[in-house]
Design brief:
It is a single chain. The protein has 3 helices and 24 strands. The chain is mostly beta strands. The strands form 6 sheets. The chain has a 4-stranded antiparallel sheet with strand order 1-3-6-5, with no helix packed on it. The chain has a 4-stranded mixed sheet with strand order 2-8-7-4, with no helix packed on it. A hairpin with a 2-residue loop joins strand 5 and strand 6.
């Protein structure tokens, strides 16, 4: 028996080591999230030759998460750490009630480091902390004093981008400092070393805290002493020009063109940029207008409005209240504010990937048209001609039953005319009563 106990002792120890830690039974349930009680080192410290770990200490044991840290950036604790300046995933370790961080390449001399713990740390009862913390310290360089600010906007929706990734490259060494925008797309980033910066706002779709090539972004260069990045309107920087995906009939003299990407809103779409040719003889059809779909819809909706909709009371001076008057133009260098975060911003024109072309005469049913858009340019400035095809459906044959219902067909009985109310049929028109059965 003693030999068997010694044989299975390593297995028992391994099982106990893998067992999940739980709070002791009998006490009241813990509903409070873990509280951060201290950090090492202290923020804004100057530590030449620093070789230790940055440490976040909590008042209880915190959870490592379902995915441990492996140095790939996929661990639950790794996703809560933003270490700058570095382009590699930091070493993040779980120490029961502590979380320690160090760069994968080690601390470098004469640099200002910024270690941010994002909200999301949980305890063993899955109580989530909404508290974050930033530790900024120097390994020998001058103390940081620069704070950057701005707003990241998703140009596709023209609305602020919550939790957008902000990357500030300190030039000329291109040291990347990173932060996340708040729920309103605004960021206040600092303190950072003084210098020239290239600030980029990125729509981090996969949440890996890295600006990937196909993700929308916008950037601005800030010279030393300039700290306001303003509005960063993020869009996908495509190196290929727009292409026509589909062309569909809108009404009798218009067609909607769907593009592979938005066009440059700063370029004017003149009617001469569209060439519509009737196939197969390629005879040109005069083009009346070529507009983004939203603009075309608003123009024709206004034209279709009834004249009586402009009532006299709508033109009275008291209808223009001060809160509905147009806001004055923002002063140079002052970032525009919106009345509500969910309202689209209007400091730039909206992007459009749907255009409407209108021609001078109606489409021919069953005909095919070739549509060419000359010099179509995307937001990045890449331009080329785009070609598409419009196939007009055949007109539906008229409903013959509607016309023939007014005339009796040969061999068919004509339907009686509807009688007006109060009409008394003539005796000849009255139905005869059936004869009484004979008693014989």
């Amino acid at each position: 028996m003693r030999l068997k106990a010694i044989k299975f002792a390593p297995t028992l120890i391994a099982l106990l080591a893998c067992a999940r830690m739980e709070p002791p039974p009998g006490g009241p349930p813990d509903a409070e999230p873990p509280q951060l009680i201290g950090t090492t080192p202290d923020s804004m410290a100057q530590l030449p030759g620093f070789h230790g770990d940055v440490e976040f200490r909590f008042d209880e044991v915190v959870s490592e998460g379902s995915t441990p840290s492996t140095g790939t950036g996929t661990g639950d604790l790794e996703k809560l750490i933003l270490l700058s300046p570095t382009t590699r995933v930091p070493d993040v370790s779980w120490r029961r009630s502590r979380i320690t961080v160090r760069p994968a390449e080690g601390w470098r001399a004469d640099r200002v480091y910024r270690v941010e713990l994002l909200p999301g740390v949980t305890d063993l009862q899955r109580n989530r902390s909404e508290e974050g913390k930033v530790v900024t310290f120097s390994t020998g360089g001058p103390p940081p004093s620069t704070t950057l600010q701005g707003t990241v906007v998703d140009w596709t929706s023209a609305r602020p981008a919550p939790a957008a990734l902000v990357v500030a490259l300190l030039l000329p060494d291109s040291l990347p400092y990173r932060v996340l925008a708040d729920s309103s797309g605004h960021f206040t980033f600092g303190p950072l070393p003084a210098g020239n910066y290239l600030v980029a706002g990125v729509l981090d779709q996969n949440g890996n805290r890295v600006a990937d090539p196909r993700e929308a972004f916008d950037s601005v260069r800030l010279a030393r002493g300039r700290t306001d990045a303003g509005e960063l309107w993020a869009f996908v920087h495509d190196t290929t020009p727009p292409r026509i995906r589909t062309v569909t009939v809108g009404d009798s003299a218009s067609a909607t063109i769907e593009l592979s990407e938005p066009t440059d809103p700063r370029s004017r779409l003149a009617p001469g940029a569209a060439i519509v040719a009737l196939l197969p003889d390629s005879s040109h059809v005069p083009v009346v207008s070529l507009l983004p779909k939203s603009v075309d819809d608003s123009l024709h909706a206004a034209a279709a409005a009834k004249p009586d909709s402009l009532r006299p009371d709508s033109l009275r001076g008291d209808s223009l209240r001060p809160d509905t008057a147009a806001a004055p133009a923002a002063r140079p260098g002052v970032r525009a504010r919106t009345p509500a975060q969910n309202q689209p911003l209007t400091t730039r024109p909206p992007l459009a990937d749907h255009l409407v072309v209108r021609v001078a005469r109606p489409w021919t049913p069953g005909a095919t048209y070739a549509i060419t858009l000359r010099g179509l340019r995307n937001v990045s400035g890449v331009a080329a001609d785009a070609v598409g095809t419009l196939v007009v459906p055949q007109r539906q044959p008229p409903d013959s039953t509607a016309a023939d219902s007014l005339h009796a067909r040969p061999g068919s009985q004509a339907k009686p005319k509807p009688q007006s109310k109060g009409h008394v049929p003539a005796p000849s028109d009255q139905p005869r009563k059936p004869a009484a059965p004979s008693s014989r």
